[in-house]
Amino acid sequence: MVDQMTSVEEQPEIDETSSDMETKKQETSPADYELYLAALKEKKKKRAEKKLQQTTTENVEEKSNDNDDVKRKITREMDKNKGHVASKKKKIDRNPRVKHREKFRRSKIKRKGQVKVVRSKENKYEGEFSGIRTGVTASRKII
After folding, report:
1. What is the pLDDT of residues 43-95, one digit of tens each?
2. Which residues, including other chains, have CB under 8 Å from residue 100's CB and lie 6 or more apart?
3. Which of 4, 11, 87, 103 gets the highest tally of CB atoms within 10 A of its CB?
4. Using CA atoms, how far apart are residues 64 and 60, in angstroms rounded to an integer?
5. pTM for this one?
């Protein structure tokens, strides 16, 4: 490490002006320029091949997906030849006792919406069940 430090210290500082740098840029030889163009063409060719390869793989994937998802439709002849298809019963229809029990449960719910439940007086007056309605008069007028 000591040798590297001394070698860096021994190197003279480069003091180039902008005019010197411009002349160096312009001094590219034709051989260098041809090499640059060849490398550029190679790079473009690789990109084009890669792009072509990606598009072909995408097309193959799309075709395979289309074939898997779409089913073939049946013909009229196939449909006519199908014959009688037994309709599958619902689970509740298989047991008549359970079916009527469910029917009764639903009818009770419907009845609650139509008729108010009658409550008998067992104890002294406990107030209105549904709240006191101030807009209703229960007395009769004497004529």
Report:
1. 999 999 998 888 888 777 666 655 567 888 989 998 888 877 777 778 888 89
2. none
3. 103
4. 6
5. 0.28
